[in-house]
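Subject: sequence -> structure tokens, single chain

Hey, anyone have a minute? Need the predicted structure for the following. Not urgent.
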Amino acid sequence: MTTLYYAPGACSLASHIALEETGAAFETVRLDLAKGDQRAAEYLAVNERGRVPALVEEGWVLTENTAILRHVARVHPDASLWPEDARTQARADEWLAWLSTNHHIAYAHVRRPERYTTDEDAHPAISAKGADTCGDLFTMTDVKLAGGGWALGDRYSVVDPYLLLFWTWGRGPALGFDMAERFPHWTAHARAMAARPAVQAVFAREGLRLPA
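Reply:
Had a minute. Here:
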């Protein structure tokens, strides 16, 4: 049995949706990050990094969203979550890298400034700069989605749940962006995602509000 360790609204949301999209059976273990579940001995025995997501298949553990997304797509080829031709695969990899190494890092400066300095007086400035950077990055992503459709055009893929994750973070309290006003193309993508049964199921399971 496949087991996904996740926290509601955390970056694990992308892997959670991808698994749901496959239609395969899997179990979930919900962690409460505010209570420190990720630092409990039981979870550290699964993922010594103390972060989500973690995917477990018969004792084999995989971490990191981008790795899990690719793995889920490849293990379940019938779900058609990963492109077949080399150039479209490269484009999918480009998207995953763009989101993980830019959006996620910038957002971490907003939410976790203590990771970047021990000077508590500097935390507000780090968070503010991180928010500015997120705004710039979000604008670039909105432009990339201006053609409509999914991240890879007409083909839905594991890139799309990852995009939805960062859209939800954009509207959240840490950034508080008016996503529909500032990023209309990305918001159109998020609304299309909200119509998918797998997304609806995962948002209900995690207690999240769907894009309106």
